[in-house]
Specification:
Layout lengths: L8 E10 L3 H12 L4 E4 L13 E2 L1 H9 L3 H5 L4 E3 L1 E6 L2 E7 L10 E3 L2 H12 L5 E4 L3 E8 L2 E9 L2 E12 L6 H5 L5 E2 L4 E9 L10 E4 L2 E7 L3 E9 L3 H7 L1 H11 L17 E3 L4 E2 L4 E2 L2 E3 L14 H22 L4 H28 L2 H8 L3 H13 L1 H9 L18
Parallel strand pairs: 1-2, 1-11, 2-8, 5-14, 11-20
Antiparallel strand pairs: 3-7, 4-7, 5-6, 9-10, 10-11, 12-18, 13-16, 13-17, 14-15, 15-16, 19-20
GO molecular function: FAD binding; monooxygenase activity
Protein name: Monooxygenase
Keywords: Monooxygenase, Oxidoreductase
Length: 416
């Protein structure tokens, strides 16, 4: 539907990016470095929110090195994990050891996502062709001759009309821009949700452990600088029942699963400290229409399994910048570039999502019960299998099926 409201302030840009998350901010920075005039619209007034994706994987650390941002990145308070351990019953398994990776980045960095986004925004602001509009929400798309030609938005200064050669929907799994373009993802189904909360680090914590599986409950323990970011996997739609059972029963399940948190769990005073994250797994069959491209969660929502959602969103942005910069700089059409981008990036997604579905089945009620009752000889075999698979699993989780590299080319000089 074509929108035309003459009272709005009109602005021109070459590329309008809807959403200032990891995909949108990375794409904005990379295009601006190539000299493309780019405007990122973020509907919130700041980045300071409790995100789920606070992991920076080795492939993203590689990109930070390529961008020359290692020094600034290391100045941000952070913690690291070099292995992903899971305790099943009383058996500790280490299916992922990033020490087997090649190159300098053999860890996952853990930091609040707002710090990572601030780093990208700060670097972007040094470039004359990078524009970031916070507290600016897209309300609809503009169309010219059947193609998307920009957006209508509302911001602190009132209504905004932003004309753009290309609009990129990077506004997440509930993408407004995607819906306005008439694109609908195919839901693959996820049998789990996640309860997200924090607990203080106990005085004598155990070795860093991704998760504990006991009595059919999977508890995620992500170590931060001074607390645990916790996640409990629950059957989808069961949160209301868990609340009905009471907060004490919820805390008891945490103590049973991870006894070392027996004291820390008392910090949970009410349900307001526990957030429900509705897990999704879906993808678009078509990532683009003339004038608009979807990337990241707007193109393919990943489940929490392996924590690769941010990693895949960033990889989309890197590939998109490589394909889109040449036609955008030349002022030419972008349809072919968007086709090439989808052909390249849809395959890593289509390989990873079935693996996530398989883990969902393993962690279902029946699967978790089988793991809980695993005899010792099976536990020993599982330990051997996990050890043998480490080189593959480290690359799968740490870098993904198709890690991307920056496009070589001219870079815009920073603002003086």
């Amino acid at each position: 539907m074509t929108e035309s409201v003459p009272t709005e302030a009109a602005t021109e840009t070459t590329c309008c990016i809807v959403g200032g998350g990891p995909a949108g901010m990375m794409l904005g920075l990379l295009l601006a470095r190539e000299g493309v005039d780019v405007t990122v619209l973020e509907k919130h007034a700041d980045f300071f929110r409790d995100f789920r994706g606070d992991t920076i994987h080795p492939s993203t650390l590689d990109l930070i090195d390529q961008l020359g941002l290692r020094g600034k990145f290391l100045q941000i308070p952070q913690s690291s994990i070099t292995t992903l351990d899971i305790v099943v019953g009383g058996t500790r398994l280490t299916p992922v050891n990033f020490g087997t990776l090649r190159g300098p980045n053999k860890r996952i960095a853990l930091m609040p996502q707002w710090d990572f986004l601030d780093l990208l925004a700060t670097e972007g602001r040094t470039l004359g062709s990078f524009h970031l509009l916070m507290d600016t929400e897209v309300t609809s798309l503009l169309h010219t001759g059947g193609a998307v030609s920009g957006v209508l938005a509302k911001g602190p200064g009132g209504p905004l009309r932003l004309n753009a050669s290309l609009t990129v929907a990077a506004d997440g799994r509930g993408s407004t821009a995607r819906a306005a373009a008439g694109l609908s993802p195919v839901a693959l189904g996820v049998p789990i949700d996640v309860l997200w909360f924090r607990l203080p680090t106990p005085p004598s914590p155990p070795p860093d452990t991704l998760g504990y599986l006991r009595n059919g409950t999977m508890l995620i323990t992500i170590p931060r600088t001074d607390y645990y970011q916790m996640g409990m996997l629950i059957p989808k739609g069961s949160f209301s029942r868990i609340q009905t059972d009471g907060l004490d029963a919820f805390k008891d399940s945490i103590r049973t699963n991870a006894p070392f948190l027996a004291v820390a769990v008392e910090s949970l005073r009410d349900w307001g400290a526990v957030k429900l994250l509705s897990a999704q797994l879906d993808r678009l069959n078509q990532w683009w229409v003339p004038g608009l491209l979807c990337i990241g969660d707007a193109a393919h929502a990943m489940s929490p399994v392996f924590g690769v959602g941010v990693n895949y969103a960033v990889q989309d942005a890197v590939a998109a910048a490589r394909f889109l910069a040449p036609p955008l700089l030349a002022g030419g059409p972008t349809d072919e570039a968007m086709q090439r981008l989808q052909r390249r990036r849809q395959w890593p997604v289509r390989l990873m999502q079935p693996l996530q579905q398989q883990v969902h089945r393993i962690l279902s009620d029946a699967g978790a019960a089988r793991l809980d009752s695993m005899p010792q000889w099976q536990a020993r075999l599982a330990t051997l299998a996990a050890t043998a698979a480490r080189p593959f699993t480290a690359r799968l989780v740490g870098r993904g099926f198709l890690p991307e590299r920056l496009r070589s080319g001219a870079r815009e000089k920073p603002r003086m």
